[in-house]
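Quick one, probably user error.
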């Protein structure tokens, strides 16, 4: 990413900053995220700590959505002809980066965005996120800010009563993300305050109470499956659990968790029960069969969509000039469906003797294997967890003194804090604390020796 020399608007010190004028989703999958989260073209002044966005021309390109957007900051104060002179080479670079067969008409009709905000809104709109949805998100964020700034519980409950319609799925989704972010930053004060608000919202709003009931039903479904599995979960037992499910939530949970077992034999067992039943019971079982078929159909469609999406991503990576780089850029999108698609393509290529495609697929697989290999620090912690006595742990540390770095101690300390916050297995939490204390002592001893 090129750097420019600019001046801090606060202290006037010279600052070097990374600038990206082309956001091409096809070449850099993380660029869209940087654009949307506000971390693109941000200047950080090392002298006074100022942080702000750099005004620079920008071209956004998403070939899958046939989207080519341009933005020229009005504060630069350039006339239209000079703006076009600066934008022209950027658009040309986007076009030249595409193979001839992918150059479509939209490339010659770039959409000019008058403000940076309209640029963001247009990108989000292409993702299916409308302006109204953004406004709803902001409304719920403002509600959370009000609740956080209200220390009295009774006053918060009055706010919940006034804003009952605003406390919905979007509100809880936003609240959960904020809780996770505060925990990741070890901000106990904020995470504690958010947890209180979350509990109050669950107990004192209609949507919260509904969510709580659904969560309890889902947990009960999981508990019943675990109980049945102790003596072996057969199709007959599963059918009995599903027939006796008292709510649609429990039914949906049972079907979702056991989709693989709902095969032809299962439905034949259900049909036999329907044939043997009479009156209202027969009608209930017929209706139940219809519900199960609808749920499994929805699950299968979702799985098929994920499989197809993974195949498209794999083909996109294989068509890249640098397969290794493209694979690394898409690592956050790699899941079990992608791995299934990769293995299926490898099998097919081998059966067809397609050596060129086999080579490309193996290059993707090599990157994934490297990425899945745990860092040496994690391997070291796993070794230390496997042993119980302090002498053996000290021996392991003595054999690897170069690994006991501040970064290693920071990682270990984070795991200790995480184990305490998430109420993990007390035995593991205790061992982590013992290992952390021992590593700290060992590190201090090493520094004294040197």
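Nope, works fine. Designed sequence:
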């Amino acid at each position: 990413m090129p750097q420019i020399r600019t001046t801090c608007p606060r202290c006037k010190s010279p600052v070097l900053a990374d600038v990206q004028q082309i956001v091409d989703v096809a070449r850099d999958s993380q660029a869209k995220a940087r654009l949307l989260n506000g971390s693109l073209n941000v200047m950080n002044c090392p002298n006074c700590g100022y942080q702000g966005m750099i005004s620079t021309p920008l071209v956004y390109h998403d070939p899958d959505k046939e989207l080519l957007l341009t933005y020229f900051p009005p504060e630069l104060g350039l006339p239209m002809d000079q703006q076009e002179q600066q934008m022209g080479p950027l658009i040309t670079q986007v076009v030249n980066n595409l193979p001839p067969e992918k150059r479509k008409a939209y490339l010659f009709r770039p959409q000019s965005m008058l403000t940076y905000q309209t640029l963001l809104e247009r990108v989000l709109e292409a993702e299916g996120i409308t302006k109204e949805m953004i406004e709803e998100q902001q409304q719920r964020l403002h509600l959370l800010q009000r609740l956080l700034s209200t220390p009295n519980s009774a006053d918060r409950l009055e706010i919940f009563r006034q804003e009952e319609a605003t406390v919905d799925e979007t509100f809880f989704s936003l609240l959960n993300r904020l809780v996770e972010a505060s925990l990741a930053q070890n901000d106990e004060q904020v995470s504690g305050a958010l947890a209180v608000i979350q509990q109050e919202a669950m107990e004192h709003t209609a949507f919260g109470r509904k969510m709580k009931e659904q969560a309890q039903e889902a947990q009960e479904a999981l508990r019943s499956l675990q109980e049945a599995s102790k003596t072996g979960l057969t199709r007959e037992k599963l059918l009995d659990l599903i027939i006796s499910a008292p709510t649609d939530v429990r039914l949906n949970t049972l079907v979702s968790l056991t989709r693989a077992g709902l095969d032809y034999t299962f439905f034949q067992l259900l049909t036999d029960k329907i044939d043997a039943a009479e009156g209202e019971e027969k009608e209930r079982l017929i209706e139940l069969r219809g519900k199960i078929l609808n749920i499994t159909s929805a699950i299968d469609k979702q799985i098929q969509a994920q499989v197809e999406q993974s195949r498209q991503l794999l083909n996109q990576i294989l068509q890249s000039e640098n397969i290794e780089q493209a694979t690394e850029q898409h690592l956050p999108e790699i899941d079990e469906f992608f791995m299934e698609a990769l293995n299926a393509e490898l099998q097919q290529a081998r059966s067809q003797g397609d050596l060129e495609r086999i080579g490309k697929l193996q290059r993707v697989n090599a990157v994934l294997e490297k990425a899945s290999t745990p860092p040496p620090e994690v391997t070291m912690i796993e070794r230390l967890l496997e042993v119980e006595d302090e002498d053996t742990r000290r021996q392991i540390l003595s054999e690897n003194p170069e690994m006991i770095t501040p970064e290693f101690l920071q990682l270990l300390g984070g795991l200790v804090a995480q184990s305490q916050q998430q109420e993990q297995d007390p035995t593991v939490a205790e061992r982590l604390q013992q290992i952390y204390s021992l590593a700290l002592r060992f590190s201090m001893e090493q520094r004294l020796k040197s």
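The chain has a mean pLDDT of 87.
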